[in-house]
Inverse folding.
């Protein structure tokens, strides 16, 4: 019997989270992708706190028109900008069970362009 999409993603997500951990010095950058929006947050797993979050619903990004890939890249750049302001240079990338292509890859590339290392 085959798994549903959600079950498959959950299984992949658990496998990734066994390896990827976020600390205060190197937080985990978690990506969530819905059909319309994309969200990224930096998480410190040791203290269980979200350090910052950026989404395509933020005022600066929501005003932009264009393809979802370009908006995802803008979200990545915004995450990098906010992380730099908070003194964070390195992150661990958590694709959250999604395949690394399309909007997830565009967000990661935007964060790299912004100066984050992962």
């Amino acid at each position: 019997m085959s798994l549903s999409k959600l079950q498959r993603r959950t299984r992949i997500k658990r496998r990734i989270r066994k390896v990827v951990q976020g600390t205060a010095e190197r937080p985990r950058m978690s990506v969530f992708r819905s059909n319309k929006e994309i969200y990224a947050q930096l998480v410190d797993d040791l203290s269980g706190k979200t350090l910052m979050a950026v989404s395509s619903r933020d005022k600066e990004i929501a005003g932009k028109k264009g393809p979802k890939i370009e908006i995802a890249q803008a979200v990545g750049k915004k995450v990098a900008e906010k992380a730099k302001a908070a003194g964070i240079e390195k992150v661990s990338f958590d694709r959250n069970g999604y395949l690394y292509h399309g909007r997830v890859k565009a967000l990661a590339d935007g964060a790299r362009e912004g100066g984050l290392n992962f």
